[in-house]
Amino acid sequence: MEKLIQDTCDDSCTGSDSDLLSLKRNMVSEPVAAGMADVFKALGDPTRVRLIYALLDKELCVHDLSELLEMGQSAISHQLRYLRNMRIVKRRKAGKTVYYSLDDSHIEQIFVQTLQHLTHS
């Protein structure tokens, strides 16, 4: 039977109380942490990840995304709506055609950094 090891520390592990107070003052707020968790949750779906990857280089219409991912337009539209509500993608209408692109460079940076992290050997 494996022995459980619990993480413990003594009073001296943080260095000083002022270090800890400084960290606490600069800690991310609960609302910001919740917003970040929501973005990561949106990126936690393989279909949405593939959609974002497809939109890295250029905007695409729902039909093209549907063909690319080999999924129905309704399913693609549902995922795009979720991403749009999270401000990860934006849309542009041209007549009856709706084109999607990444909302801003921050999303691209998050995505590319994550991809590089995963492929780093």
Brief summary:
This protein is mainly α. It is 55% helix and 12% strand. It is built from 6 helices and 3 strands.
Within the CATH hierarchy, at the fold level, what is the topology? Arc Repressor Mutant, subunit A
Helix fraction?
55-70%
Tally of DSSP helical segments: 6
Q: What is the count of β-strands?
A: 3
Poorly predicted tracts of residues: none
Name the beta content range: 5-15%
Categorize the overall geometry: elongated
CATH architecture assignment name = Orthogonal Bundle
The radius of gyration over CA amounts to 21 Å
Number of self-contained structural domains? 1
Measure the end-to-end span: 35 Å
**CATH 4th-level superfamily:** Winged helix-like DNA-binding domain superfamily/Winged helix DNA-binding domain
Biggest sheet architecture: 3 strands, antiparallel
Residue-averaged pLDDT: 90
Spell out the helices and strands N to C: HHHEHHEEH
InterPro entries: ArsR-like_HTH, HTH_ArsR_DNA-bd_dom, Metal_resp_trans_reg, WH-like_DNA-bd_sf, WH_DNA-bd_sf
Pfam family, one: HTH_5
GO molecular function: DNA binding; DNA-binding transcription factor activity
Organism: Paenibacillus flagellatus
